Amino acid sequence: MKLIVGLGNPGKAYEDTRHNIGFKVIDYLSRQWNAPLTQSKFKGMYAVSHRPEGKVMLLKPLTYMNLSGESVSALMDYYDINLEDIIVIYDDLDLPTGQLRLRQKGSAGGHNGIKSLIQHLGNQEFNRLRIGISRPPTGMKVPDYVLQRFSEEEIPEITAAIKKSAAACETGLSKPYVEVMNEFNGV
Predict the structure, then answer these.
(1) Which residues make Cβ contacts (< 8 Å) with residue 170, sequence separation at least 6?
(2) Which residues are annotated as catalytic?
(3) Which of 115, 120, 123, 138 could form a disulfide with 108 if both were Cys (CB 3.0 to 4.6 A apart)?
């Protein structure tokens, strides 16, 4: 079984914020696959999709970003999902808006959701798909920036990034992640 996790914060107030780009990709895949996120367990909302490549779970942790690892590790333990079978999607301040960066391992890089995952999984070797949200303007604090909605000018780039991210996740169901990285990095 494969697991695709989108990181974000639950609730209307956070719905379309930069920090919730991971949730947006999961919502997009859920619609594309006709797999509504109706199951609530493991401190998250999830769906199971029966794909030609096998069973795939889509997960949106509802623990708030800083505790994402609680939800992911509980679900992985229950379903006995291997680390190499997950993809975690999240925002990245160090990439230009809409640019993708895929990696198989690494540090948290200051991202609290990834910090929580590394802590709860006891490992930093898991597949990641980062979506650029750029840096805040001078004088704006990072928390204020990531909890802000995208500007009208950014919407086309973000919409394209969501679709490319979904395509990368789908490709990752049938190809080794290193091949997915080669195909989608930097797009």
Answers:
(1) 29
(2) 19
(3) 115
